[in-house]
Amino acid sequence: MPYRAPSIRACGCVLTSGVRCQHIVARDRERKAAFDEKRPSSRERGYDSKWEAARKGYLAKHPSCVMCGQPANIVDHIVPHRSDMKLFWDKTNWQSLCTHHHNSAKQSQEKR
Description:
two-stranded antiparallel ribbon; about 40% helix; two-stranded antiparallel sheet; alpha+beta; about 10% strand
């Protein structure tokens, strides 16, 4: 069975298909660290004790992930609230998700 030819990256690294260059990994790590430094803390974004109580009550009423039916442990905002507190507290904008779907499927949807 034929294999794909290795590719040469802009930095000069020769890599097989599907492998990430160490330079790209380092650049992504720096970019994400710079973003996290500027991002407000979770408390500043509204995730305080009032949110924890509301989250606990919502998960008690909606214990299953809406994507797979497994036990949910995250209350997700369907439409990202982007610091809009009216949208943040709108319960029709909430959904229960398991960690897997929140960190994979939901994040890729938001990036599109």
